[in-house]
Amino acid sequence: MTKAPEIIACPACGTELTLEHLVGHLDDERAFARLVALSVPMAHLVVQYIALFAPEKQRLTLRKKVRLIQQLLPDLQRQAITHKGRDWPAPLYAWEKGIEQMLAARTTERLQLPMTGHGYLYAILAGLADKHEAAAEQQREQDQRLRPQRDTVQVKGQTMAIGDALEVVYGGKDPALVAIAERDRQAAPMPADVRARLDALRGKGGKA
Fold first, then answer.
1. What's the total number of domains in the chain?
2. Nearest of 129, 64, 135, 55 to residue 98 by alpha carbon
């Protein structure tokens, strides 16, 4: 004869449950606590986010809460998500901002509840990552525009840097010789004919 399961009554509310149910509930509690701990330092926000999945005037079972957090954990730990076929970076501060945005939408009744999946949150995270990429690209373009350029001037028909022009005007250098020297700095090795011309100019104009 199979022994009937032992029934235990909750001292607070009088609900009856078996010892097996109680042990299973404790296991779920431990699992939930462990999963929440893994999402630190934003555990409080994760718990509030999970509450968005609860139907009105109902509570989520602990098992449902654990399952929802388990769905998020891999992406929380790698700090990235996959949305619409593309991977997006999702650092913890972005998760915080995304969840806070959803909680604010709930407060102003702009969020349709209960949530049925993580798609809305992931769309927010992808949007935040896209804005960050656009801002970074704009900054790179701005830095490129502001990067100092080497100014040039015309001296005796030759285009040269301002520093070289000063040497021609005040140092008495042959402008053709300066122009060849500049090309020499920018291209290597020097072609033989250019080297011969440079040697000839040096011989004609004196020591450079």
1. 2
2. 129
